[in-house]
Amino acid sequence: MDLTTALGLAAGAAVVVTLILLGGDLRTFYDVHAIIVIFGGSQAVRRLNASVAAALPALVMRAVVIHLAGAEGIAEATANRAVLPAAEQARYRPAEFLGEDLLDALAAADLVVGRAGSSTLAEATAFGLPMVVIPYPHAGAHQHANAAAVATAGAATLIEDEDLDGPSLLDAVAILEEPARHAAMAAAARRWDARSAGVHTEQ
């Protein structure tokens, strides 16, 4: 399944999609200025899903949102999409998961919102993506240490799990409206090295 199929972007959809293969990287250009990818892992996505739902009407006015809601959250996310105005539905693309197509989504993205596992940080920084990181409090202390490391490096905004809600999510993604700050965080992400930063890998 390719990325357009996974996200329900059938021919004639309201959103304009152009796929260009450049040097092996798939670039996706929508009829908005920014793309956000939001994902949290199979067991750590519930609070993320609730925050996306609370912020959704305002969130889709700022960007196309690719939201990996997980098996437990996809039904509610799909229902939330259905009540948006038609033009805004095109900007919200919930999916259960993307598998290997996640790399295509990241290649197209401008911002990642997610947990602070080592694989998430490695994938986002490999693409030079600014991040909003929410360490999962039930994964031991390592996710908080990871989040602090990447935030200290200037590549991420850290939100504590208990502080994450619709308004705090909207505040964090406001970086998309600050080109200089976004560029600085992207540069920090490209420079960031998880090994030298002492990031903890999942066991």
Beginning-to-end CA distance, first to last residue: 30 Å
Which blocks of ≥5 consecutive residues have pLDDT under 50? 9-31
Any guess at the CATH architecture?
Answer: 3-Layer(aba) Sandwich
Remind me, CATH topology?
A: Rossmann fold
Please report the total strand number as a whole number. 8
The helix content, as a percent range, equals 40-55%
CATH superfamily: Glycogen Phosphorylase B
Biggest sheet layout: 6 strands, parallel
If you had to describe this structure to a student in words, what would you say it looks like?
With 203 residues, the protein is an alpha/beta fold. The chain has a single domain, classed as Rossmann fold. Helices cover 42% and strands 17% of the residues. It contains nine helices and eight strands. A six-stranded parallel β-sheet has the order 5-4-3-6-7-8, sandwiched between helices. A two-stranded antiparallel ribbon has the order 1-2. Strand 3, helix 2 and strand 4 form a beta-alpha-beta unit. The radius of gyration is 16 Å and the shape is globular.
Nutshell version of this structure?
The chain is 42% helix and 17% strand.
List keywords for this structure.
two-stranded antiparallel sheet; Rossmann fold
Q: Any chance you could write out the topology, listing elements then pairs?
A:
Elements (H helix, E strand, L loop, with lengths): L2 H4 L11 E5 L2 E5 L5 E5 L6 H17 L1 E5 L1 H13 L3 H4 L2 E4 L6 H7 L2 E4 L3 H9 L4 E3 L8 H11 L3 E3 L7 H8 L5 H13 L12
Parallel strand pairs: 3-4, 3-6, 4-5, 6-7, 7-8
Antiparallel strand pairs: 1-2
